[in-house]
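Appendix C: a fully annotated inverse folding record. The material below is reproduced so that readers can follow the format used throughout the book. The structure is listed first as tokens, followed by the designed sequence.
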């Protein structure tokens, strides 16, 4: 049975700047509503905002109240994708899956659906209230259950811990070893890796657990079933054990590291736990060694920017600063620059906190502030090792800034953020 689709092409007279469109994208990624988008775009209603964005992006708007869903397509569609991305499969047309979404900026959702169903996807924009009604009418009231999530997490079985993990006889440790908790944590990690997330945020709120991924520099909230709230403590304990933290200590911040193999890819995860009002919060930095290729040609710089940057990194001395928000690619850019200029006749030394990736042929120093090995102190020592190029992970204080500047004035090329 084919779907009957009622769509409308829209043309808006509102001119939207790229900065306004970016703010609208961030509003939706952070869980905001189309009323908030309307405020950002300077239009009077959510409907007008929807039409304006659709017109700007060249999308059609689906009238879901008049659409007849192709039940066969829906039956074969993974239910967890509907709940995770707030999308709904309407039917097939010209060998494409027709997908309703209320967030036209979430390109990853379209890519994930396309990969899951093995065909091209044509997105249609839909009002969020109509989309919610459609989902509830076909899948029942409420989000997916925790049992559904666990049952559909077979792909997360590809998560393997590469370090030895030690468990004790405590109740928290026993909870962390339960199969359901293990699979939930694996699902969170696996989904983050497949989403190309740079960071995972697991937060304890008064209303329950909140999980967000930072993708392309923007935090995006992930849909979680209400039953998942009772697993918060167990999830935290599981991650603390995996990162070799003290699971009994809940009063002070802790830091750790996890080495994983996810679907055959080696992943390093830096874990930070901090006590908060409603429970411990966790932030994990995802370092995907297999996905990152430290090549300037692959970064995606415009030709003129690439040419200028390529010239700067080959100067005999000076200082090159790369700036930008978290997850914007500063480290990737600097590592790519080092890879581009390293050679047998060039000595390169880095001082980092932490060393995110090991680079062949480059000398790397791990900062250890507790024993006095700060950026400033390590930089002073580095200059006595006759380097040609120095990378300083961060310039955090005046002393480091002075040392870096002095190094750049005495025949060294300095990189930093």
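Designed amino acids, in order:
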């Amino acid at each position: 049975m084919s779907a009957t689709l009622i769509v409308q092409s829209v043309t808006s007279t509102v001119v939207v700047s790229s900065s306004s469109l970016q703010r609208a994208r961030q509003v939706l990624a952070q869980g905001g509503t189309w009323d908030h988008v309307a405020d950002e775009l300077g239009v009077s209603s959510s409907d007008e905002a929807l039409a304006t964005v659709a017109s700007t992006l060249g999308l059609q708007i689906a009238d879901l109240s008049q659409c007849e869903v192709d039940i066969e397509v829906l039956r074969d569609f993974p239910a967890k994708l509907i709940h995770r991305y707030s999308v709904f499969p309407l039917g097939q047309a010209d060998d494409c899956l027709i997908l309703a979404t209320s967030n036209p900026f979430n390109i990853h959702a379209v890519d994930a659906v396309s990969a899951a169903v093995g065909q091209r996807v044509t997105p249609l924009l839909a009002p969020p209230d109509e989309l919610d009604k459609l989902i509830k009418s076909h899948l029942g009231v409420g989000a997916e259950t925790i049992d559904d999530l666990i049952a559909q997490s077979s792909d997360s079985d590809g998560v393997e811990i590469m370090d030895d993990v030690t468990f004790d006889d405590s109740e928290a440790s026993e909870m962390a070893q339960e199969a359901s908790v293990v699979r939930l944590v694996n699902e969170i990690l696996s989904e983050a890796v497949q989403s190309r997330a740079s960071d995972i945020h697991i937060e304890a709120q008064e209303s329950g657990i909140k999980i967000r991924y930072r993708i392309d520099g923007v935090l995006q909230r992930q849909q979680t079933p209400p039953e998942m709230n009772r697993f918060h403590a167990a999830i935290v304990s599981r991650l603390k054990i995996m990162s070799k933290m003290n699971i009994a200590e809940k009063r002070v911040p802790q830091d750790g590291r996890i080495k994983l193999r996810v679907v055959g890819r080696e992943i390093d995860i830096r874990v930070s736990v901090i006590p908060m009002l409603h429970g411990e919060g966790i932030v994990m930095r995802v370092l995907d060694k297999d996905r990152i290729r430290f090549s300037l040609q692959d970064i995606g710089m415009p030709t003129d920017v690439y040419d200028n940057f390529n010239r700067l990194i080959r100067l005999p001395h000076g200082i090159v600063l790369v700036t930008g928000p978290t997850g914007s690619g500063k480290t990737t850019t600097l590592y790519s620059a080092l890879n581009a200029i390293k050679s047998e006749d060039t000595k390169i030394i880095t001082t980092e906190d932490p060393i995110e990736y090991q680079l062949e042929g480059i000398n790397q120093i791990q900062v250890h502030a507790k024993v006095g090995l700060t950026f400033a102190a390590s930089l002073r020592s580095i200059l006595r090792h006759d380097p040609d190029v120095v990378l300083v992970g961060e310039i955090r204080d005046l002393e480091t800034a002075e040392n870096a500047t002095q190094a750049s004035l005495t025949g060294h090329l300095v990189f930093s953020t």
